[in-house]
Amino acid sequence: MDLNSSTRRRSPPSEDTDQQLAQNSKMQAKRFGSNGITFTQIFTYCLVALPIIFAISLIFRHPSSDRTMGFADARVLENREVKQNATPIGAGGSEGVLFQHADKYNGKLLGGLLADGFDEAACTSRYSSFLYRKISLHKPSSYLISRLRSYEDLHKRCGPNTQSYNKALEQLKSGNKIGLTDCNYIVWISFSGLGNRILSLASTFLYALLTNRVLLVDQGKDMADLFCDPFPDKSWLLPRDFPLVDQFDSFNQNSPHCHGNMLKNNAINSSAMSKPSYLYLHLVHDYGDHDKLFFCDGEQSFLENVPWLIMKTDNYYVPSLFLIPSFEKELSNLFPEKGTVFHHLGRYLFHPSNHVWGLITRYYRTYLAKADERIGIQIRTFDSRRGPFKHVMDQILACTLKEKLLPAVDMQDSVVNPSENAKLKAILVTSLLSGYSEDLRNMYWEHPTMTGEVVGVYQPSHEEFQQTEKQMHNRKAWSEMYLLSLTDVLVTSAWSTFGYVAQGLGGLRPWILYKTENDTAPDPPCRRAMSTEPCFHAPPFYDCKAKKGIDTGTLVPHVRHCEDISWGLKYLLTRRVKADFLSSMTHRSTEISVFIPHKRRVDPHSEQHASEFSV
């Protein structure tokens, strides 16, 4: 742009002015050694060019990392929004929902939760799972990450077939009372249904972290077939030649080495210098008062130097660990964000084996990947009669329609021309029976939705009844728990550990279907969970200091009674859900006083104790 020309347009100059400008131009040209450009023009061009150069530098500076930062935020939104901020893997089709994540730390390592360096081919799911789920809103603490890396070093030093392990094994075989050892161990016995096993194993790993023990996992019939090893270098599986493995099935409350039984018979001398070579811990749902003393600080002090602890449990007993004073500070450091224990430990420990991962990914890509929203509905009834039951179907519809999780249908079929851009919803149903998904599928096939949305209903399997000991049954169960955890919205059944696993892995606060009574759908039919944490079905109600019974759901603000089991304990209470908790207390069935800071409420209704824990 010529500023001199602009000046001339604003005010017609005289000839004297033109001559003066010409002389000035010649002088400037001589000064700068150029006959074709003026100082003013150079300055003007620079002003125009600098913003353009700066904008171009922003676009091309680290393009992949900048796009990834946008994608990290977008992953918590709808799948359609994610596509605008990420690079798809593959050439389209269902693989278009899978994305490369340039930020390795926050991507495949789950924010540092996982260690790098594993053989990816041996366990594809470990570093690929993040491609199928939204980025978690819950970040692991730096202290938890540090402790996990420290535990991995301990496991490498003390795991199976190491010098320390062989030394401890020889001491165990001798059967003599011994003093301190290089490494202490806790052996988890594979027991109960798959959901219970996953939850109890996560609890036992947390206990190992708190007590600096090495966790070894009884292989049972299918643990190696279902899960990858979570620790580098050394397996977490207990060798099959372990000397006590043949006694695992027979261990019970009356076993001679049972900790509770020994306390009951005054067979433990806490002041003795030497300790038993091993103790059996019976924390199954039928455990007695002396077994429950495990959750007292005094007994933890005694157990500290017992080299081998053998544990059988079908419970998620994490909430009661938070009530042990000596663990309180460490747990607070590990989990400063309350209500995220299983979410972090579950994603760290439980990686589907390649066979199970194939079941998961094939189903997801075929039926769920293209949906704008995925709704998981987990249905489990505790009824000896053969279903499906109308009152259960009525309850499912009442919950999902009332909470606007599913669109209502137009029974008059007045909607004739659906929108070309209709939103696609995929409903994933998991149930032992096919009837519930068939009813949903027929409803959305026979009638249009009021919103114009298109709804697909899918159910991977219907095994008719639980078959805990069958390999393929458990493969399907594990894959369906995982698929549920990949949904955007989740509805689960009361008392079911199957649903607990899914909500914890997915970091989802589900809507819980209340347990039905007298073949009647309850009113209200469901309520929103207070946190993603599972429920401890059989907690102790004992004050270790006062040595008397107490409601352990009233001791601290972050351990409460469960929404679905009034006597159970659950780890929560974040500020984010406190208002939801207070507003829905009138809908709970409980016979126990539930403590809320500055407020106490009692509901006189009661419900029967859970008769089946293998869910």
Automatic annotation (TrEMBL):
**What would be an example GO MF term here?**
galactoside 2-alpha-L-fucosyltransferase activity
- Which GO terms fall under biological process for this protein? cell wall biogenesis; cell wall organization; xyloglucan biosynthetic process
Enzyme Commission identifier(s): 2.4.1.-
Known Pfam families for this protein?
XG_FTase
In terms of InterPro entries, this protein maps to: XG_FTase
- Keywords attached to this entry: Cell wall biogenesis/degradation, Glycoprotein, Glycosyltransferase, Golgi apparatus, Membrane, Transferase, Transmembrane, Transmembrane helix
Q: What class of enzyme is it?
A: transferase
Residue ranges of the TM segments: 36-60
Gene Ontology CC annotations of this record: Golgi cisterna membrane
Predominantly, its location class is Golgi
- Give the subcellular location: Golgi apparatus, Golgi stack membrane
Which portions of the sequence form the region Disordered?
A: 1-27
Please give the function described in this protein's UniProt entry.
May be involved in cell wall biosynthesis.
Concerning its family, UniProt says: Belongs to the glycosyltransferase 37 family.
What name has this protein been given in UniProt?
Answer: Fucosyltransferase
UniProt source species = Populus alba x Populus x berolinensis
